[in-house]
Specification:
With about 180 residues, the chain is α+β, with helices and mostly antiparallel strands. The chain has three helices and seven strands. The strands form two sheets. Strands 3, 4, 5, 6 and 7 form a five-stranded mixed beta sheet that branches.
Length: about 180
């Protein structure tokens, strides 16, 4: 099975396929370091997603992006942190008191971060596999323990749906529909 990323917009599902498979393997990431760099990574993902979703073109929805990253590889050396991550960004809005899913993207990435004087981390570089040809080569050259396991990024949409419900003031059991 091979997959690269997916996107949802306006009720249609578009699948963009990369050559090869995105592998899932257990993360041996330092949880303390991950807790320090994760906010910078996820804020960067949200910033980059803004303006790219169908829901944002529909003002009545009040749509916004919610992003999560899962550490696959994490290493710190010479003042830089290299984070190999699985990312999921989803665009949600509200229509008739219901949470609506308007768009989304799931992408493996490598980010490098440095600690600022205030102790917070900032992303200094970011890479992702190219679409189509070269995707498999990029994955195996950027991740140290590539396997042939089928695509499974391990980033569940449930926490993003919960965060969106809270943001929009909806009940925790509010159903999710398509834009």
């Amino acid at each position: 099975m091979s997959a690269g990323r997916w996107a949802v917009g306006g009720g249609a599902v578009v699948v963009l396929v990369a050559t090869g498979a995105w592998a899932r393997w257990p993360s041996d990431a330092d949880p303390g370091l991950w807790n320090q760099v994760r906010p910078a990574i996820e804020a960067r993902l949200v910033d980059q997603s803004r303006g790219s979703g169908y829901g944002e073109s529909e003002p009545g929805l009040g749509a916004r992006w919610f992003c999560r990253a899962r550490a696959v590889e994490l290493a710190e050396r010479d003042g830089l942190v290299r984070a190999g991550v699985s990312t999921l960004c989803m665009e949600y809005g509200v229509r008739a008191g219901r949470l609506v899913e308007c768009g989304g993207a799931e992408v493996p990435q490598v980010l490098r971060l440095r600690r600022e004087a205030d102790g917070d981390y900032v992303v200094v570089s970011q890479e992702e596999a190219p679409d189509g040809a070269g995707g498999e080569e990029w994955l195996t050259s950027h991740f140290s323990r590539a396997t042939t396991v089928a695509l499974d990024t391990g980033v569940a949409a449930g926490p993003l749906e919960s965060e969106a419900r809270t943001h929009f003031g909806l009940p925790s059991d509010s159903p999710v529909t398509e834009c």
